[in-house]
Specification:
The complex is a heterodimer of chains A (518) and B (62). Chain A contains 20 helices and 20 strands. Chain B has 62 residues and is of the alpha+beta class. In chain B, strands 1-2 form a two-stranded parallel ribbon. The radius of gyration of chain B is 17 Å and the shape is flat. Classes of the chains: A alpha/beta (518), B alpha+beta (62). At the A-B interface, helix 1, strand 4, helix 6, strand 5 and helix 7 of A face helix 1, strand 1, helix 2, strand 2 and helix 3 of B.
Chain lengths: 518, 62
Amino acid sequence: MEKQTVIGYLVKKNEYYDSVFLMRVAKNLSEQEGILDAVVLMGTEKNKELLADFGAGAEEVSSATPNDLILALKAESRQALASALGDIDQWLHPAAAGGSTFAVRTLDEALARQPHSNLAVISVPGAYAAREAKKALESGLNVFLFSDNVPIESERSLKEYARERGLIVMGPDCGTALIAGIGFGFANVVRRGPIGVIGASGSGIQEFSTLVHRNGSGISHAIGTGSRDLSDSVGGISALAALDGLEADRQTQVIAIISKPPGALALANLVPRILQCPKPVITCFLGFEENHLPAAMRNRTARTLNEAAALSIEIAIGKQPPYFKLDSARFQELIHREREGMKPEQQYIRGVFAGGTFCYQAQQVLLEAGIVAHSNAPLQGNVKLQDCLRSAEHTLVDMGSDEFTVGRPHPMIDSSLRRERILAEAEDPEVMILLLDFVLGFNSSPDPAGELAPSIAAAKRAAKKRGGSLSVVASVCGTEEDPQDFQQQVKRLEDAGVVVFPSGAEAAQFCARLVAGS
Amino acid sequence: MKGGLMPNKVDDLLQKGPVPINIGLQDFAASLKSQGVEVVHFHWTPSAGGDETLLELLDKLL
């Protein structure tokens, strides 16, 4: 008898849950026996459009509000559907042990419970984020604003408001901060030390801080500014506030600033402030021409996050740690090994990144080696990808950018889109190298290497079946203290045949050499 | 570069360490707790049922 698919819905009125929690509920449901697919969303207009693709058109679904939970399931049988929906409360309301005993329903209540609070950590959907940030600032709180999709006008006005009150807004779209050793958002477990960092991107801060840690030094504070802070529309308001803070901080001896190229006006605000700072300031503006900086700053300018970490440690401790020296012999041996079995038509690099800075830095490294690439977030000199879902020639995709993340968790949390993309790239016979990043730390996937290893193996098998060989190159950003276990993650990838480098810059440099053949 | 009459609350944050209120993802509160940080979790839900027009109107009234 032919199997029939049964579709069922459940709408729970006035039950709001966050997107990461709902992703886990959907994953648990889809693993139940007889369940083919599970979608669990709040009833926003966008989400209801997504459900239309699922085949959901029930009246109660279309009338759901952003405060109502919608569950939509595809099952093999009515029994499987009924069983999964009957068990739903065990996923939505897990045993009280994991529940927060300090949960409150308003900011005023939170402040009454903890009157000495000094920071609001905000990760609500973008459409509501500026409103919550303003309320927090009005209550005298600094703000870590993880939410993205906040209009730039709102960002500027929030930051101006904060500046007038001696506060800072880290964000919006602030992935990471480390304040006095405490990690916010996607942060790694790194020791405290003399190096302070100001970063426009979360993954940039993560790579820099883990490289500093793995080379024996430490971080005083890592202050995220959000990706647009050094644009001319915002003018670097948060970067300047962070510089003030790190200059005054007694533990900080060296300050590093990591960003995409600043706007001309923002740079005009920043440069005199850097030159006036009594502490050494290292700048790493990825994709930026150094000769646009005054001569006095050039000896403290780094091209990559590796260089920035090495230079910061060198200034802090007086010598460069040996780790940062590239092992040329190892590169040569690996190039020889990886090129074995490749067909002549295999010539392109496909980078599928979770961290925006890894994508950006790889583009810079490749451009410097004469390799022009397509990207959904192209560096100057590269080509904008016409359709972000389809690669062309050399392509480096930032899977964490807005076009991939609206309505779903970031690829550092949810690997499913990267998994699909890896398999899609593997179908192209012209692909030579898959370049990947794996980012560990708080709030990232508990096993990023394990989640992608089966797709990597499938990609390699597909190339082999065509008579070729696919090279998979990766970097792992993390420390041995991270919840995921750094060494275990590296081993998992190496067991899957991946060439693993300790930093994104080295992984990209290797790809350039592999394409060149020497 | 510092000026003005307002006390600088960024220095306070860096020197005393963070005392956070978490608004949104409950995992963020859990990761702070796992680091030994006292955190109050504000279980946020969209006000006005998520109705943007109504929210803008409320903002003007308040």
